Amino acid sequence: MATFTKLFFTLSIFHLLACSTNAQLIDNFYDQTCPCLQTIVRNTMTSAIKKEARIGASILRLFFHDCFVNGCDGSILLDDTDTFIGEKKAQPNNNSVKGFEVIDNIKNSVEASCNATVSCADILALAARDGVVLLGGPSWTVPLGRRDARTANQSAANSQIPRPSFNLTRLTTMFLAKGLTASDLTVLSGAHTIGQGECRLFRTRIYNETNIDTNFATLRKSNCSFSSDNDTNLAPLDTLTPTSFDNNYYKNLVASKGLFHSDQVLFNNGSQDNLVRSYSTNEAAFSTDFAAAMVKLSKISPLTGTNGEIRKNCRLVN
């Protein structure tokens, strides 16, 4: 009996240790340790979006690019140093991802209230949700408890983040590699109902592709010439309501007005046509599915338990 009791106690301790290093994300992770967290994030995001509505889209994209490289670990927030190369200058991110200063502002306010408690990865996840909500989109409960990476992976950022030029097969494969389905791809692409794209990313589509509305192509050509002297000129991803989070992105696709090649492939006589058509007429379904897909996205390979760290400065490893 004594031997059995000792064995049971040993196994119980092992189980507890295993749970501590493989902890799961939970909804109320900071309820006791930083109860003001979500208010701080929401207030800072509200101020930022009042100054520039586009920042909601920027933060959402920042979160997506973070999660697709080694999971949702805040690695994209790290600056380069003399001995460290981060993800900010990877091809999909360089001079493109924005919103770092907003995350810095949130982190500073959170640190003032709850020192060394909340990860930058969790702050980014909450800020992405609030940006969507503040632009009229759905809300969702963000699972929390992520810890911050101590490193970043520029080569993975170059190879694993989807590009505006990719076709449906390649996009689907990349999403499947992250545990996301083709349906997740289609609903998460609905994030392009807000934000803007640079001329260099849609020039080939408006000049060379045939599955595009003629008037739409002409409109986009007005500030995106065939030459490369205006690469950074911007156009809205959603031509109807570019600063409102709604289902008009899908209406654009049905009308052959997708800005990026990677947008229009979702509605081009392929496997996602029916889902795009459904979302174009049912905003409630899109909102529900988008919220669920964002929760799923946010759970990609988080660092939890004793892995990683809680960065004091989101740009630097402690």
- Could you say what the CATH topology of the largest domain is called? Peroxidase, domain 1
Order of H and E elements: HHHHHHHHEHHEHHHH
Q: Which CATH architecture of the largest domain would you pick?
A: Orthogonal Bundle
Uncertain spans: 1-22
Strand content: under 5%
Radius of gyration: 21 Å
* Biggest β-sheet description: 2 strands, antiparallel
Overall geometric form: globular
Count of beta strands: 2
Query: What is the count of distinct domains?
Result: 2
What is the residue-averaged pLDDT?
92
Organism: Medicago truncatula
Family: Belongs to the peroxidase family. Classical plant (class III) peroxidase subfamily. Belongs to the peroxidase family. Ascorbate peroxidase subfamily.
Cofactor: heme b; Ca(2+)
Binding site for substrate: 162
What layout of secondary structure does this protein have?
Layout: H1 2-21, H2 37-51, H3 54-67, H4 100-113, H5 120-134, H6 154-160, H7 168-176, H8 182-188, E1 196-198, H9 199-208, H10 214-221, E2 234-236, H11 248-254, H12 261-264, H13 273-281, H14 283-298
Antiparallel strand pairs: 1-2
Helix pairs in contact: 2-4, 2-5, 3-5, 9-10, 11-13, 13-14
Short structural summary:
This protein has 2 domains: 26-161, Orthogonal Bundle (Peroxidase, domain 1), CATH 1.10.520; 168-296, Peroxidase, domain 2.
Task: Describe the structure in your own words.
- The protein is mainly alpha-helical.
- It has two domains: 136 residues, Orthogonal Bundle (Peroxidase, domain 1); 129 residues, Peroxidase, domain 2 (Orthogonal Bundle).
- The chain is built from 14 helices and two strands, in the order H-H-H-H-H-H-H-H-E-H-H-E-H-H-H-H.
- A two-stranded antiparallel ribbon has the order 1-2.
- Helix 13 packs across helix 14.
- The longest helix is centred in the first third of the chain and has 20 residues.
- The protein starts with a helix and ends in a 20-residue tail after the last helix.
- The N terminus is likely disordered.
